[in-house]
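quick one
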Amino acid sequence: MLRAMAFQDPVPSAAPTVLDVLIIGGGFAGLSAALYTARGLKRGAVITSGPSRNAPSPHAGGVFSRDRQSPDVILAAALDDLQPYNFPVIEARVEALSGQDGAFTAVLEGGQSVQARKVILATGVEDVLPEQPEGLRDLWGRDVHHCPYCYGWELRGGQIAVLMPGLQGQSAVENVLYHQKITQDVLVCTDGPAILTEEERALLTYRGVTVLEAPLARVEARAGGGVRLHFRDGQVLERDVLYAHGERRVRGELAEALGCEVTAAGITVNAQQMTTVPGVYACGDVTKGNQVAFAVASGAKAAMQAAFSIFYDDLKRDREALTATP
Ligand SMILES: Cc1cc2nc3c(=O)[nH]c(=O)nc-3n(C[C@H](O)[C@H](O)[C@H](O)COP(=O)(O)OP(=O)(O)OC[C@H]3O[C@@H](n4cnc5c(N)ncnc54)[C@H](O)[C@@H]3O)c2cc1C
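structure w/ flavin-adenine dinucleotide:
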């Protein structure tokens, strides 16, 4: 999908070019940041490698003006939008990042380095999926989903299953009940004994949720959409979707290398998408987000802030130069 380009100095010269803004990650947040960087007349580049988080999904729901289009199509359109600006989008992995505000250096796979005054991290997160039940990983994004906003409206009034091993604690119970906005017919698979209080069990029964404690062995796609659930006790049930969760692993290594605060939720940013390290911005899922619309908005914001910051850095430099002039 990505139009790969070898990294070339955007402005060939004897001295290596220092970009204004280097954007790492070319998913929804990164390409949105690129558009704003280009429109802000800043010299930048996107360096990206690997698929966007929702690449396995045939559609992206809730994307303004592109609702339910394929993520690939949306990202290809975003790349097209960058064409008139000649904004480089380079396919390569950033292996290392160092430096400080005004002088960052990224080392790409293969050893090439890129310098920039500001950095925007848009590296997203990785969904680390459980190995069991068998088949879950293969159906991820198609018949197995994690988000009832991304895929839920399509199934309204249908029959859904939620995989919630153990079903322990109030937030797990509330998570299951939340799916009833889609349909009353919710089956929760606890993949072994459910660790429920009497009160929680009564609430689930009152709300009409079926709790199935038999271990789940295998999930397969049902012809025409949906899943067939194979339990270890021999039961086989069909559902329109299985909701399941993986571990959400933040791609925060580059941020950590620069000294940015990173928690299990994401890279810490303020309302302007600034990290705890000057000159470093972060946007999209890597900052806690979970939706394309939020990623796009935060990418735009990060790019605007980076450009503002460059403006004020230059102003400060010129004021100081003026003061120093006799
Ligand atoms: C199965 C599934 C379905 C989804 N469906 C929807 C939906 O219907 N609607 C919706 O709004 N949201 C949906 N989402 C969420 C959506 O995918 C994310 O919110 C969105 O992709 C976040 O954009 P991002 O730019 O932050 O990250 P990504 O789109 O994941 O982009 C990050 C990019 O950075 C690259 N990268 C990472 N590290 C490096 C590095 N060191 N060097 C170079 N490149 C790097 C990655 O490979 C990737 O290409 C879904 C998620 C999943 C898992």
